[in-house]
Amino acid sequence: MPNSCTKRRMLSLGLLASLAGMVPAPQGMAASAPPDFSPSAETAWVGIGIGAFAPVPGSPQPVVQDPAHRYVPNNTPGEQPTQRISDIGNPNLKQWAKEVMKKDNDEVLAGKFAFTARAACQPGGVPGFLVLLAPGALTIVQSPSKVTMIVDGNAETRHIRLNAPHAANARPSWYGDSVGHYEGDTLVVDTIGLNDKTFLDNYRTPHSEKLHVTERWRLIENGAKIEVLLTIDDPDTFNRPFKMLRQYERMDRTFAEYICSENNSANLFDYGTPTAEKPDF
To answer: pTM above 0.85?
Structure first.
């Protein structure tokens, strides 16, 4: 049987072993901190480009502008703006989606104002949220349990629960059920449970309730930009899953309030904004 000195030595070694698990790892081995997408209350993110997703090499392409109808953005000096006409020749689209989009294209070419969720005061959904049109800028608020993303245009808001499972039997909704976690310098967001009332993009690409969206958010260029890599999987609408990119640049600005229904009061176009038949006051 061990003597008292041996007992004390064994107890000391056991205590040191237990404490070793509580000591932080050396600096070179420490886990990286999550990316800080909201370094100050005056930081917002503005989409780069003309409100469209970019293709990813090696992946089926997202829907783009029909090459037969050039797109001219608003406020282009010396040119008359045009509307988005989707390229339904995209081989990844199922036939039903092509037929829906052709009917929509024909109506727009005949004079109908092209639908956008922003102009119609409707939720953008996922991933349409990422290409909501100006004047929207994106504000990101992070906490240990949730990431909240807000576009100041009509205060469109997403809630992403961190390190949590998807809700059981979630009913389809405008923004679905989004859960996320950090992988080093990347925020990974997984979204299911989306209804089919939204479009994937500003080309009015439809989807089914089987839509599954995965996003990988990370800071690039020393924090001056955010890059989002998206994977779209909807077997009822697309022949194959595909990837696309969206980038934002950092701006020093506070959250601004743009109320959709007020800004559309001029009725310059038929935006499809919901309107009450009589006042409720």
So the answer is: no
